């Protein structure tokens, strides 16, 4: 049996995730614009169709990708202004993408903290504001941000996240799993675990992965007929399967393509998430009885 056949069989054997319910309040916390669509573009549509209230909050505007800023700004040497323009571009793309998936603008929150620096805010810059070496900003600058001019500090970020939780009062919160390779992603995990524990609501967290292992998901490019396989870095999590209809897949890839600033550079990676299912885990860690599996060396 081929590797793909074994992976396909394993995905088909996963239990289905519980369906969304009318009136349920679902909050998706996304580290960067596009993560929400890659991980959960089908789930967002299913939640909206079921009559749930679906909300999306982006922690950063994705303004740290210098090569992207060079292409967007048509310059060989992008400066701070180019990267701030990229942040606003990606914020606009994010709002258009989730609108395609059925999320109204009033259900979105752009926090606008520095891309690639969430762990610094979580740790050494919890109180003292951080100045991004890319945008030269030390406060939220993105147009339409939840708290304009909030300092780039962990305290301010946590305060914004608490504001979002207080406004939404979510029944479910979808966040990256701690095994996700990207530092911004697993830092968001730590924040969400702490904040939901403070509210006595850790059981409302559900976990997904975007950066799941070397070359995952494979093969790259558009393969809507294939399943999204279990990510190697998180293979021991108790995954559940969310099957998508062809219509949901088509709408998801439209939303992915809304991120033009990203698809012209990483299109084969982004479109590899247009698969016939998505994955969600009800737990951040494997069961205690599960043996630990070594994580492969991964490219960012």
Features:
two-stranded antiparallel sheet; Rossmann fold; alpha/beta; 9 helices; five-stranded parallel β-sheet; 300 residues
Detail the poorly predicted runs.
295-300
Strand content: 5-15%
Distance between the termini: 31 Å
User: Main beta sheet, described?
Assistant: 5 strands, parallel
Order of helices and strands: HEHEHHEHHEHEEHHE
Helix percent reads 25-40%
Rg, alpha carbons: 18 Å
CATH architecture identity: 3-Layer(aba) Sandwich
Shape: globular
Question: Structural class, from helix and strand content?
Answer: alpha/beta
Kindly give the count of domains. Answer: 1
Number of strands: 7
CATH superfamily: LmbE-like
Tally of helical runs: 9
Reading side by side through the largest sheet, how are the strands ordered?
3-2-1-4-5
Secondary structure blueprint with pairings:
Layout lengths: L2 H11 L11 E6 L4 H16 L2 E8 L5 H8 L6 H22 L6 E6 L4 H5 L31 H15 L3 E5 L6 H16 L6 E4 L31 E4 L2 H13 L1 H12 L5 E4 L20
Parallel strand pairs: 1-2, 1-4, 2-3, 4-5
Antiparallel strand pairs: 6-7
Helix pairs in contact: 2-8, 3-4, 4-8, 8-9
């Amino acid at each position: 049996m081929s590797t793909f056949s074994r992976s396909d069989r394993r995905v088909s054997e996963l239990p289905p995730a519980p369906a969304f319910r009318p009136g349920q309040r679902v909050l998706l916390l996304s580290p960067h614009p596009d993560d929400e669509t890659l991980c959960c573009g089908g789930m967002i549509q299913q939640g909206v169709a079921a009559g749930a209230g679906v909300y999306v909050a982006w922690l950063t505007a994705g303004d740290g990708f210098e090569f992207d800023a060079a292409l967007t700004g048509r310059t060989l040497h992008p400066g701070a202004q180019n990267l701030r323009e990229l942040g606003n571009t990606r914020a606009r793309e994010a709002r258009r993408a989730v609108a395609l998936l059925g999320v109204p603008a009033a259900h979105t929150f752009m926090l606008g903290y520095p891309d690639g620096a969430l762990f610094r805010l979580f740790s050494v810059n919890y109180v003292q504001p951080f100045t991004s070496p890319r945008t030269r900003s030390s406060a939220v600058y993105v147009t339409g941000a939840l708290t304009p001019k909030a300092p780039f500090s962990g305290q301010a970020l946590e305060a914004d996240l608490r504001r979002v939780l207080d406004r939404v009062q979510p029944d479910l919160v979808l966040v990256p799993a701690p095994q996700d390779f990207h530092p911004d992603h697993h830092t968001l995990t730590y924040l969400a675990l702490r904040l939901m524990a403070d509210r006595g609501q850790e059981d409302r967290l559900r976990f997904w992965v975007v950066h799941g292992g070397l070359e995952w998901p494979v093969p790259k490019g558009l393969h809507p007929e294939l399943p999204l396989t279990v990510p190697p870095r998180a293979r021991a999590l108790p995954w559940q399967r969310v099957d998508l209809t062809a219509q949901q897949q088509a709408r998801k890839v439209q939303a992915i393509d809304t991120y033009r600033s990203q698809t012209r550079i990483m299109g084969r990676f982004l479109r590899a998430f247009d698969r016939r299912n998505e994955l969600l885990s009800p737990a951040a860690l494997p069961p205690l009885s599960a043996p630990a599996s070594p994580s492969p060396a991964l490219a960012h």
